[in-house]
Amino acid sequence: MGSLDKLILKILSGVSDANIGFDELCNILINLGFDLRIKGSHHVFRKNGVEEKVNLQKDGANAKPYQVRQVRNILVKYKLIGK
Question: CB-based contacts of 17: which residues, under 8 Å, 6+ apart?
């Protein structure tokens, strides 16, 4: 199991939403085929077939916990894990 898979499992577990690195969360979305657009401090991710857009901002070195929950909900809703 690679580090990306371990991080996805950590996100899906929901145990440590406040301890997910911002860059790590961005890398997961990019590896899952999301397109990135940066406007100021906002990193906006879009993907064909996914209605919601993901808007991430740094909270120090980590992603904000509510944004980790948003990504988790999208991963589960669109069954993006295991592809």
Answer: 11, 65, 66, 68, 69
- Which pTM was predicted? 0.92
pLDDT in tens, 18-51: 999 999 999 999 999 999 999 999 999 999 999 9
Cβ contacts of residue 19 below 8 Å, gap of 6+?
62
* Strand runs labelled E in 1-83: 35-39, 42-46, 54-56, 58-59, 62-63
Give the phi and the psi of residue 81 in degrees, each rounded to 5: -85, 140
Give residue for tokens 């669109």: 78
Q: What are 41's two structure tokens?
A: 């401090």
